[in-house]
Design a protein that fits this description.
10 strands; Nucleotidyltransferase, domain 5; five-stranded mixed β-sheet; alpha/beta; 2 domains
């Protein structure tokens, strides 16, 4: 295997006319200006830990993409770099994988800029990423068949780091399991994609809010809010491609429960999305039959599916092609009400509450 030398690489590294690379360099400059104190703090650390992520929240491939790198300064603070590029269908088309590479490239570009300025460098860098594609390609376990323009830059900058005695390691982490900085990187990457097309990332406020309570509030707190209806959801798999769901539509005075049989479903989140839509449609029909305007009513939704709730609130991107159309339908339907408040409930408690399951 041919390994590039420090001197050879130094002469090759330059700003390349590749949109993702340009976006990375611009994002770093903005972060340095926006968080000058964090930039200085970073340079005082000898060991770096950085969480990266990439996102294609609208369309993959071909849609706007975002990337992020969260440089951990201490347990509570971080220096954050994020950005994105508009969608591109011409080759190489924008994609989630290119966004993930851009997140890792951000760290190498930061190191390269420090070398150019003669600033102090870390001795060791740990890059934590939830993309197995990036981690395995970076470590040489997988061949870099695609996105060669970005990987070429990656290899050049890795050589720069090696030449300066900076040891760089990669560690894979599972996404959406509550890891603080991984979750932050996920949010920033999504923000970067929408920023690239001049839009704000969808937040929970986009689908309405009928209560100031945080999602972790109890059911009792939701009953005290000003929501007119509460929709309780529960789903469970019945086979590899089948599921059963149940929803309870409740008001302070009455309630009713319905069971939904689902085919061609492979995950609980997919099932829960479908049950939620069934409950919404039931409520809309009920209000329509009574000649009532749904815009006059607010709804509280209780679900145990953390991933679905965070996707709806805009905290997580929706990477699954099976979930993307369901997510879109839920947001569109939720806007037909005066507001929707999303509550996280315990699955065991929810199953107990739905006695008619």
């Amino acid at each position: 295997m041919r390994r590039e030398t420090w001197a050879g690489t130094q002469s090759q590294v330059s700003s390349a006319p590749i949109p993702e690379l340009t976006a990375v360099q611009e994002a770093i400059q903005k972060a340095r200006a926006r968080q000058a104190d964090g930039w200085e703090s970073l340079q005082s650390l000898t060991d770096w830990e950085i969480y990266t992520d990439g996102s294609a929240p609208i369309k993959n491939p071909g849609g706007a993409i975002g990337f992020s790198s969260v440089f951990v300064l201490d347990k509570e603070t971080a220096w954050e770099v994020y950005g994105g590029t508009p969608g591109r269908t011409s080759e190489p088309a924008t994609s989630n994988n290119r966004a993930e590479i851009a997140g890792a490239l951000t760290i190498l570009e930061v190191i390269y800029q420090l070398t150019q300025q003669g600033e102090s460098l870390p001795g060791r860098v740990m890059i934590v990423c939830d993309s197995q594609y990036v981690v395995n390609c970076a470590q040489g376990r997988w061949k870099k068949h695609k996105n060669k323009d970005l990987w070429r830059r990656f290899d050049q900058l890795m050589c720069v780091a090696r030449g300066k005695k900076v040891k760089i390691d990669f560690r894979w982490t599972r996404a959406h399991v509550g890891t603080k900085w991984n979750e932050r990187a996920d949010v920033l990457a999504k923000d970067g994609a929408f920023l690239a097309i001049g839009q704000d990332a969808p937040q929970s406020s986009d689908v309405g809010s009928c209560s100031p309570h945080e999602p972790s509030e109890t059911k009792a707190a939701v009953k005290d809010s000003d929501c007119h209806y509460t929709l309780y959801l529960y789903s469970e798999m019945t086979g590899k491609t089948g599921a059963k769901g149940s929803y309870r539509l409740a008001t302070p005075n009455r309630e009713r429960t319905a069971v939904v049989e689902l085919d061609d479903v492979i995950t609980l989140d997919e099932a829960e999305y479908q049950v939620l839509l069934e409950g919404f449609h039931d409520l809309l029909k009920t209000l329509g039959d009574a000649d009532r305007d749904s815009k006059d009513f607010r709804v509280a939704v209780d679900s145990s599916r953390d991933l679905m709730l965070k996707q709806i609130r805009g905290q997580y991107g929706v990477k699954s092609e099976r979930l993307q159309p369901l997510h879109k339908q839920v947001l569109q339907t939720a806007r037909k009400f005066a507001g929707v408040h999303w509550n996280k409930s315990d699955k065991k408690d929810m199953k107990e509450a739905l006695k008619s399951w």
